[in-house]
Amino acid sequence: xxxxxxxxxxxxSVDFSDVMRLPxxxxxxxxxxxxxxxxxxxxxxxxxxxxxxxxxxxxxQKIIRMSIAHLDCxxxxxxxxxxxxxxxxxxxxxxxxxxNDCGEVVDFRMPDLIHTTAEDVxxxxxxxxxxxxxxxxxDAATLSFVGNCxxxxxxTLILAPTIYLGGVLxxxxxxxxxxxxxxxxxxxxxxxxEDICALEELRYLNLSYTLIEMLPDxxxxxxxxxxxxxxxxxxxxxxxxxxxxxxxxxxLDLYRCESLSHLPSGIGYFxxxxxxxxxxxxxxSDCACLGDLQRLNKLRGRLEIRNLENARGTSxxxxxxxxxKNLDHLGLSWSWSSSSQSMGDEYDxxxxxxxxxxxERLKVLDLxxxxxxxxxxxxxxxxxxxxxxxxxxxCEKLPALGQxxxxxxxQLKGMRYIKRIGxxxxxxxxxxxxxxxxxxxxLGLYDLPMLFEWSDYDLRHSSLLFPRLETLTVEGCPQLRYxxxxxxxxxxxxxxxxxxxxxxxxxxxxVLCSVLIKDMEIDVPLTYLTSLCNVQKLVLFNIKDELTxxxxxxxxxxxxxxxxxxxxxxxxxxxxxxxxxxxxxxxxPNLSLIGVTxxxxxxxxxELVVEDxxxxxxxxxxxxxxxxxxxxxxxxxxxxxxxxxxNDLKKLEYLLISxxxxxxxxxxxxxxxxxxxxxxxxxxxKVSPHV
Length: 691
Prior knowledge:
By secondary structure, the chain is of the alpha/beta class.
């Protein structure tokens, strides 16, 4: 571990924000010194990033797997894993980092100056024999490339950013006999040529985001292949039957292969497999089964198991031994269309799900299509879960989730038989001061047609229920008319396609920052909204009632108001609050009146947008909006603005008028009306009012 102390001593003393301000040669020297202090495997991982263009978003898994493919030949790849990227990020070599739900790094970028240094390091450290593909046939049989060596010596072949699909090409894959890594992702190829088998040294093959439907059988002759990336291949229907021959496989990435009908049997032969995001079960003996997972004890990360209706009984589920897999994200799904036709009475939903108990380290759980009468108890004891999604399940009662200490997000979708949310989901509390859902920040209820009651469990102290909840979405709950009280942490509320009566509960939500009300028939007075005195953003979307809105005086903190697709809206008259900065009104075909009452001059309204409101002819008292900087009027054929109004808007910087033929003609004819506005667009053209 000697290099750790050396590395900390050297790198911890370097402030890369200061380094970037140095002259390029000096900064490069400092960066290069730090890189050479890295252990060998980190240095190689760092150098490999340079083969992608500057500014390119670098995917963690791609970099790690390509590093393994290169270092595998030199027998010191065992130290390469996801932690390499984490270490380099901690040393400020990478920026613009994004994370997934489990807190793992998804992608990142390398600053230009560091990228330049990495290119120098790559030439020395990797001795990288690199080729970049500039055009490719739809079967990848022929391609053109530019490289730093002859085709037969190229070890790493990737796509150039300006990839061209089709055309006259000048070489075939079979020429790259020493190829270790081949990246054809996003190339648009529809098939892979049979001569892929000639690449006997190939360890990494990336076909993600392509249009491939089938793989050639010859791919199973690539005995050295470690990584096969087929993620986001929507059209992929099947994998070769002899896939089991690829016994060196470590990463089989089938994420979002939505058309894949099944996996072939024999997946269990991949004893070194560490990642396989998707397992699709079939109903024939030559298809993969849950038992194939038994020997895959190195499996980690994400796993989604589809078509569980094809599980071969409880013993098959038990043999999967998911408890011994170090999974972070587990998805379990049943297909109703298949299950309704092929599942017999002997299939025990509950027993199958109970035997699929995962390791207690699990962080994300997705359940879809489960039609058992109840949930197994293990769901209530996954204390490391941070996100749960339960969709299209047939249970009448929800599992006890309220005592999961780390749960931050809960989504319930399409639960057609759930009638109430109450004590059963809150779980057993040991004392009167125990908190329910102590860490929950996001809660979503979607398409629960029978839900009519949401109990607060008679908690003596309201702060004990959802004490950290920030975002609540209620969508497609037509019978729910009451929501329990939430502490003053709730910031964002969406109510969509549900009972208007639920809005009566808003009188208790005094600290909300944003509210979206969408696809609603509001059968209660809109005055209930005035209780939201602290709301900063309010959006009314597709309100189906015939409305006349007189708002804003009671919203002293409102910054953004949107009224969108409200086809029955007749008139809007505002007593504008001084805080309002943005007003957006769109697609209200029956709206005929927009009035800004002179009672309160808006000193902060900066942006006004009115579009696709054909009956609106003006905004009354618009001249009172003295701070207006941006004005957009579109699709209001009879709209008028008089000379005095434009003169009063002395801070106006941007004016766009489109779909208003009379007004456009007038402004083109008399440019004095717009001569002082810096940017004016009439129709689809920017005009020069000073000419």
